[in-house]
């Protein structure tokens, strides 16, 4: 079929959680550039599962992003959030579609799906990480996730992409951290014990970076995953620091 088309539709099932395994399987045979991934309605037509707009976008951003929902039914807040997510995808699109893909399965037993893309950008080596939490049991925290494919001797800025003013479409639950999860705990070095030894090189801030770590620290110590509840997700950008 790909002799006659630039992209393929992996499945008619567009449920954001189901698509994670569908898209992973597709990636064993074809690159993400060929994989059409759409953001559809908050309530899945396949199984009535409810997921946030951020989660649905993150799931679709691991391939060729598209939107298949009725935008006339979205609120102004949702449209604003979607516009920011689309802009973020455009910034990482070359990495996702043309970079090296790493399937990070170390936390599968914890209900975490994670995929990392590594490539070269204008400022040097770049990477992007997507992590998805299926469900969380009471008191069951997540260990760090070790990245792959980086240069152990280089320094990288880790940026937790945040959507300012984003709203979760799921019902609010008392004590839940709805909408959080994109900021790296301890990234700004506030409080005792928040820094990871060796993560910031010589310990000085570089260009106002939120979090600077060596490639060795990212691959051996890993990154925090402040995911909470059910169907939570995050995206980290990792960019080489030069000079």
Q: How would you describe this structure to a colleague?
A:
The structure is a single chain. 20% of the residues lie in helices and 21% in strands. With 243 residues, the chain is of the alpha+beta class. The chain folds into two domains: 16-95, no CATH class; 100-241, Golgi alpha-mannosidase II (Immunoglobulin-like, Sandwich), CATH 2.60.40.1180. The protein has a six-stranded antiparallel beta sheet. A hairpin with a 7-residue loop joins strand 3 (100-104) and strand 4. The protein is globular and about 45 Å long.
- Give the DSSP E fraction (strand runs of 2 or more residues): 15-25%
Domain count: the total is: 2
Give me the CATH superfamily of the largest domain. Golgi alpha-mannosidase II
CATH class of the largest domain: Mainly Beta
Write the layout of secondary structure elements.
Elements: H1 16-27, E1 36-39, H2 53-60, E2 64-67, H3 76-98, E3 100-104, E4 112-121, E5 124-133, E6 155-160, E7 212-214, H4 215-220, E8 232-241
Summarize the entry for a quick read.
The chain is an alpha+beta fold.
Please tag this protein with its features.
6-stranded antiparallel β-sheet; alpha+beta; two-stranded parallel sheet; 243 residues; 2 domains; 4 helices; 8 strands; 21% strand; Immunoglobulin-like
């Amino acid at each position: 079929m790909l002799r006659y088309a630039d992209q393929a539709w992996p499945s008619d099932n567009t449920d954001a959680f189901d698509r994670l395994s569908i898209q992973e399987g597709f990636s064993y045979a074809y690159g993400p550039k060929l994989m059409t991934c759409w953001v559809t309605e908050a309530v899945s037509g396949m199984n009535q599962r409810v997921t946030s707009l951020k989660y649905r976008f993150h799931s679709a951003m691991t391939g060729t992003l598209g939107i298949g929902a009725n935008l006339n039914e979205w609120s102004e807040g949702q449209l604003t959030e979607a516009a920011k997510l689309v802009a973020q995808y455009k910034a990482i699109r070359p990495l996702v579609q043309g970079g090296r893909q790493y399937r990070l399965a170390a936390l599968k037993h914890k209900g975490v799906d994670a995929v990392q893309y590594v490539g070269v950008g204008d400022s040097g080596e770049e990477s992007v990480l997507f992590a998805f939490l299926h469900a969380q049991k009471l008191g069951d925290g997540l260990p760090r996730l070790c990245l792959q494919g980086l240069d152990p001797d280089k320094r990288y800025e880790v940026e937790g992409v945040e959507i300012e003013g984003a709203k979760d479409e799921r019902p609010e639950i008392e004590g839940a951290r709805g909408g959080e999860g994109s900021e790296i705990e301890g990234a700004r070095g506030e409080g005792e014990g928040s820094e990871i030894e060796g993560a910031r090189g010589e310990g000085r801030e570089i260009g106002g970076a939120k979090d600077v770590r060596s490639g060795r620290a990212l691959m051996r110590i890993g990154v925090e995953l402040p995911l909470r509840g059910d169907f939570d997700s995050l995206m980290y950008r990792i960019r080489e620091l030069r000079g």
